Amino acid sequence: MHMPVTIIGAGLGGLTLARVLHIHGIPVTVYEAESSPTVRTQGGMLDIHDYNGQIALKAADLMDEFHAIVLEGHQATRVLDPDGTVLLHKVDDGMGGRPEVQRGDLRQILLDSLPAGTVRWGHKASGTRALGGGRHEVTFADGGTVVTSLLVGADGAWSRIRPLLTTATPEYAGTSVVETYLFHADTRHPAAAKAVGGGLLIAPSPGKEIFAHRENGDTLHTYVALTRPQDWFAAIDFTDAAAATARIAREFDGWAPELTTLITDGDTAPVLRPQYALPTGHRWDRVPGVTLLGDAAHLAPPNGDGANLAMYDGAELGKALAARPDDIEAALTEYEQAMFPRSAEVTTVEGGAVPGSGSEHHTAQGLINMITEKSQ
């Protein structure tokens, strides 16, 4: 296959696809809106599953590099009642299939595996148009353009490539997450650090939850999930960090102080992250020369599988293209027909009901049952 592949978006899915294509000698260029790989922090912790994310890394021949960035002990999980009662304390015995890594570290090993110049930074896609015959033109914010016969949208929730395939747009999922960090927690906030433990803390309650991850060292990354309409959050002035923090904390009046400390004593201003989703089971008819992967294809509220699915999409698409170099449309059809039901199954069955989702449907016992099942 000598036709170059154009990927829009240098997230985990787009980079996994680029790496698999590179291994198979297929020319590829990735266009990324961000100006450099270090322009912003690349999110928090990710558990990389042995049934999708790790399979993708094997296809990318990066398992040794992956093992080198795994944070040992971070698969530990604790579930607490709002009053601080420990309902579940699951240690990381090293036998689980979901080792934790920092998202930024994972992205970096993918970037390091590609030849220099593969990723073109500072290229924000602003529009697209079909040229016929499976060819498409992408226009960038700086006025530049690229024409390609094989275009992949790996550009996330608000994909500029998606309109070539479907009129579907993301809608608010009913829950938003407020994010903050607590630094040097072991010495400054030992009770909160103990509550979180060595890995993930979940404190569920109808319509609201607190999640916290222990990241490198004694940094705690907190996610406060609230099932509220967007107007409710719009009434909060998030430019006033103290006032916004106090307003969010009021929703947790009466909760144990080791839990509310994760909100009230955060060392960073609270960041609001509304959750959006595409229709469950979203799919499109085959359009020559273009396809999607990851959130661009099947955006759902965080359910523990988003990054893993994006990487798996990238690996499967790369393998399909490598296996059918003389019939690109057959490769794209094969990829999409497997991807549609795979992503629908995850978003329908799990539907946000895994740690880190911010789903209003969590119950403490349901979480315990789910965690126990996934560890077996």
Automatic annotation (TrEMBL):
Residue stretches making up the FAD-binding domain: 3-340
Pfam families registered for this protein in UniProt: FAD_binding_3
Q: What highest taxon heads this organism's lineage?
A: Bacteria
Q: EC number(s) of the enzyme?
A: 1.14.13.-
Q: Name one GO molecular function term.
A: monooxygenase activity
Q: Where in the cell is it found?
A: Cytoplasm
Cofactor(s) needed? FAD
Amino acids binding FAD: 47, 103, 295
- Keywords (A to Z) from UniProt: Cytoplasm, FAD, Flavoprotein, Monooxygenase, NADP, Nucleotide-binding, Oxidoreductase
Enzyme kind, highest EC tier: oxidoreductase
The catalysed reaction is:
a tetracycline + NADPH + O2 + H(+) = an 11a-hydroxytetracycline + NADP(+) + H2O
**Keyword Nucleotide-binding on entry:** yes
Q: Answer yes or no on keyword Oxidoreductase.
A: yes
Q: Where does NADPH bind?
A: 40
Similarity section: Belongs to the aromatic-ring hydroxylase family. TetX subfamily.
This chain's function reads:
An FAD-requiring monooxygenase active on some tetracycline antibiotic derivatives, which leads to their inactivation. Hydroxylates carbon 11a of tetracycline and some analogs.
Q: How does it assemble?
A: Monomer.
Q: What is known of its domains?
A: Consists of an N-terminal FAD-binding domain with a Rossman fold and a C-terminal substrate-binding domain.
User: Mind telling me which PANTHER family this protein's record contains?
Assistant: FAD DEPENDENT OXIDOREDUCTASE DOMAIN-CONTAINING PROTEIN, MONOOXYGENASE ASQM-RELATED
Spell out the protein name for this chain: Flavin-dependent monooxygenase
Q: Which organism is it from?
A: Streptomyces decoyicus
